[in-house]
TrEMBL record:
It holds the Pfam family Fra10Ac1. It comes from the Eukaryota. This is Folate-sensitive fragile site protein Fra10Ac1. InterPro entries: Folate-sensitive_fs_Fra10Ac1. Residues 193-231 are annotated as: Disordered. Residues 207-231 have a biased composition (Basic and acidic residues). It comes from Ostreococcus tauri.
Length: 231
C-alpha cells in the first residue's frame, strides 16, 4: 500500500476545514477561527488578544439579530436579489422559504382595541414545520394560544399590516374556532360561502354552454336542410 505523503494529508485536511467553514455564518466562522488560533498558538496574552478581536470584529450582531432585522411577512424577490450579498438577507430568506403559507397563525389578544373603528388589531405569522406536523392552524384553532378542535371555520382576508414604516397587504387564510372567529372583523370572509358561490357560478356557466351548443346544433341542421332543398 502506498503511504500518503504528509503534504497530501495536510492539503485534504485544509480542504475539509475550508468546506466546513463556508457552511458557517460569518460570526460563527469568526469564532471558530479564533478558537483554532487559541488552540494552536496559545500564549500568555492569547485570551487578551481574543477579547480584543471580538471587541473590534465587524460582526456587531448575532444571527438572531440579523433575522429579526431582515424578516419580512412577504418577501420581495427583487429586493432580495439586489441584497443577496448580505448575510442577514440570505439567512432571512432561508427561514422564510422554510415556512408554510397555506394557513396563518394569528393573535387576537388585542382585537378589541380597533373594533370600534371596524378594524380589529390582529397579528399574523406563517406556520412552522412543527406546527404543520401537529396540525396547528388546520386541525386545531389557528389562534396561537387556542387549542380547540371543534367547530373550526376557514376565513380569508386581505391582511393589511405595517412593516418597516410601510403599509402592505397580503391575502391570508385562517382556520379558527367559533369563539376566536367572533373576534375577527368584517374584512374576514368565510371561504365556504365563497366556494358555494363559485360552484353555483360554474353550474350556471355550464348550463349556458350547453344551451349554446344546442342552439348551434339546431342552426347547423336548419342550414343543412336549406342547402338540401336548394340542391
Amino acid at each position: 500500500m502506498r503511504r500518503a505523503r504528509a503534504e497530501d494529508v495536510a492539503e485534504r485536511a485544509l480542504r475539509e476545514v475550508a468546506s466546513r467553514a463556508r457552511a458557517l455564518s460569518p460570526r460563527s466562522r469568526h469564532a471558530a477561527m479564533l478558537s483554532a488560533y487559541d488552540e494552536w498558538f496559545k500564549g500568555p496574552n492569547a485570551k487578551r488578544r481574543r477579547g480584543e478581536a471580538l471587541r473590534d470584529a465587524p460582526f456587531a450582531e448575532t444571527d438572531a439579530d440579523a433575522l429579526a432585522r431582515e424578516h419580512r411577512f412577504v418577501r420581495d424577490d427583487d429586493e432580495d436579489g439586489r441584497r443577496r450579498g448580505e448575510w442577514g438577507v440570505r439567512l432571512a430568506r432561508r427561514y422564510h422559504d422554510a415556512l408554510f403559507k397555506t394557513f396563518a397563525i394569528c393573535d387576537v389578544s388585542r382585537a378589541s382595541e380597533g373594533a370600534e373603528r371596524g378594524r380589529a388589531k390582529i397579528g399574523m405569522r406563517w406556520r412552522t414545520e412543527g406546527e404543520v406536523r401537529s396540525g396547528k392552524g388546520q386541525l386545531s384553532c389557528g389562534e396561537r394560544r387556542c387549542a380547540r378542535t371543534e367547530g373550526l371555520r376557514t376565513f380569508e382576508c386581505h391582511f393589511r399590516y405595517a412593516e418597516r414604516g410601510e403599509t402592505k397587504s397580503s391575502l391570508v387564510k385562517l382556520r379558527v374556532c367559533k369563539k376566536c372567529a367572533a373576534k375577527l372583523d368584517d374584512g374576514f370572509k368565510r371561504v365556504r360561502d365563497e366556494k358555494k358561490k363559485s360552484v353555483g357560478h360554474r353550474k350556471s356557466e355550464k348550463r349556458k354552454c350547453e344551451r349554446r351548443d344546442e342552439q348551434d346544433e339546431h342552426d347547423h341542421e336548419d342550414s343543412r336542410d336549406t342547402l338540401d332543398g336548394l340542391l
